[in-house]
Amino acid sequence: MSDLNHYSKIASELGIREKQVSSTAALLDEGATVPFISRYRKEVTGTLDEVQVAAVRDRLHQLRDLEKRKEAIVKSIEEQGKLTDELTKKIAAAETMSLLEDIYLPYKPKRRTKGTVAKERGLEPLATLIYSQESASPEMEAKSYVDAEKDVNTIDEALQGARDIIAEWINEDAEVRKQLRHLFIEEGKFVSKVIPGKEQEAIKYQDYFNWQEPVKTAPSHRVLAMRRGEKELFLMLDTGPEEKEALLLIEKKVLKGNNSSTEQVRLAIKDGYKRLLKPSMETEVRVFAKKKADEAAIKVFAENLRQLLLASPLGEKAVLAIDPGFRTGCKVVCLGRQGQFLQNETIYPNEPQKKTMESGALVKYMVEKHGIEAIAIGNGTASRETEAFINSLGLPKEVLVVMVNESGASIYSASEVAREEFPDFDLTVRGAVSIGRRLMDPLAELVKIDAKSIGVGQYQHDVDQNALKNSLDDTVMSCVNGVGVEVNTASKQLLTYVSGLGPSLAQHIVAYRNENGPFKSREEIKKVPRLGEKAFEQAAGFLRIRNGVNPLDGSAVHPERYGLIKLMADDMGVSVSALLKDDQLVQKIPLEKYVGEEVGLPTLKDILEELGKPGRDPRNRFEVFRFEDGINEIKDLKIGMVLPGIVTNITQFGAFVDVGVHQDGLVHLSQLADRFIKDPNEVVSVNQKVKVTVMEVDIARKRIGLSMKADPFGKSPQKGKRDKPSGKQRANKPEPKESMEDKLALLKQKFGK
């Protein structure tokens, strides 16, 4: 199949035109990135967005891999001298890797099996005769195959050998496998049981001690939980339909008559199913279910990561950052408006030292000395106590006090990146720097941390790690390029994610900047060693140079369109600089006048929008958030309290919310809204500020149940009495609640506690 056929197939699957697919594929093959294509080549792709461009890329990759496998299989069968025109057509028509491997199975080099041993004993003709089901007496036919020299000593041994061969023929029948695979997916069930004797040891998996549910509807988190329990040797997990259904399906396909040969084939079917087909199909279905579960979990993680990366930045402010603690004190650093390190100290305002006066005096001194505009406090141990201490100092009201999610800061502080940035400071100082910079610009700081360690995932260590990495890399790249990067202040890690750059060119840019001073124009970026025309084309539109020689260098307008902007300004009788400062004048530009072969209305509209807000950060404006005063620990919580909180993580079963007690509470899916919802993302997002009602407090297990419903306890008169469940509803076995230990594991992973 040529790429033309691939384009047609992808267009049909994605509901777009074939021309859009072929044009996008051409750009991808030339090395263009997804952000560049979706932003600056809209006329070429027919305005495909990032999601569509990525879908074309991924599906094209799959189809090309399938094509390569077809070529390898044809070559293998041809070398065996068994390739026919019919077989070639079947291989060419196979649309999935599973169907392709089914076709290849009879020709695939295999280890020595029961069937091959039987063939070596000369029993294949007997198997052929029996499989035809024309002989009424296979026992009589088998007599002539009894041969001691060939290790066939009895009629039963001859028949058994023939059945072994037949079982393998059935196992290698592509149509049987196709139908059976469909049955396993549509009618198969996950059946989970605890391994006897491990009930106490496996208590966190108690919901799965005796559980079953359909394969096709099992949600991602339960599939991954059951597989983890099996991997840890706590659960036994079986996958498949009822055996009688599977056998009946094969019999309908294979059985032809009703005689003694038919009975021999029936025995071969039963043996072949248990020994060959069921294990094979179960493996395939497990792979299918795992892939489906992985995709769902990765999607959740990627969306959470996107929301976290695009959190509102405080911006260029002088920040005093505190990594709070009790016994070891609070590590304090002062950062300049560009995030540069200025000073670090350790204060002891909390127990056991309780040096509040000395600590307060030092904080006040640093605030005044460095013109501090905001104080960032990590939300870990002693955070609420430290926040209360800072608020008691009587600092100028203009100085913001903000609690910052420090998840992943410890990972950063021990990383090679942190050691490279701050070789002379220990982990605690680096962690405080990360907390402060995270307040100033979450995106710029979080890209320095392995995305898996940021703490917004679900079962991220159980999913396909390559697929996870690819998805998270796409997400980070999308966010970085969507916001844009100030080339004169960006770290190497941030520049790495700019379209067309990567680690090597990012390092070269930083080295050039360090040696030659700040870039004065985008054009100067071309002087960076090894940064060629192609890389410049891909990256330039996403790099910003504030207060550069050309005012357009601080915008998202690509340099290739500077001439067009100059023409627009000339036509309006003003300079480019004046045009950028006059939004009303920008709105008067007659776009149709500038439509040409390479530039259409989609690009012109993007340019017009950018001219109206050149270089403006697309993220939401920063808003200060405060937890409830006096609610510092889990023991302070009472049922019915209504508290402010921040969403820290979203899973398929609900959302975790920080209410300021060092332990996130869970708002279960059923408690997220007054209406029925399937996906938590319908109503919440990471970093969203919410109001929650405390529904459950289990101090021993550190378990907090929360609700976002308007009337979570159902006390409103207008709601009336709740309906009693019907007998049928009571009889249905409820879904297992997500193991609280699993949920707590997510929290431990987030906060390192």
UniProtKB/TrEMBL annotation:
InterPro entries (UniProt xref): HHH_9, NA-bd_OB-fold, Ribos_protein_bS1-like, RNaseH-like_sf, RuvA_2-like, S1_domain, S1_Tex, Tex-like_central_region
Biased composition (Basic and acidic residues): 732-743
S1 motif domain sequence ranges: 640-709
UniProt-listed SUPFAM superfamilies: Nucleic acid-binding proteins, Ribonuclease H-like, RuvA domain 2-like, Tex N-terminal region-like
Residue ranges of the region described as Disordered: 709-743
PANTHER family xref list: 30S RIBOSOMAL PROTEIN S1, S1 RNA-BINDING DOMAIN-CONTAINING PROTEIN 1
Protein name stated in the entry: Tex family protein
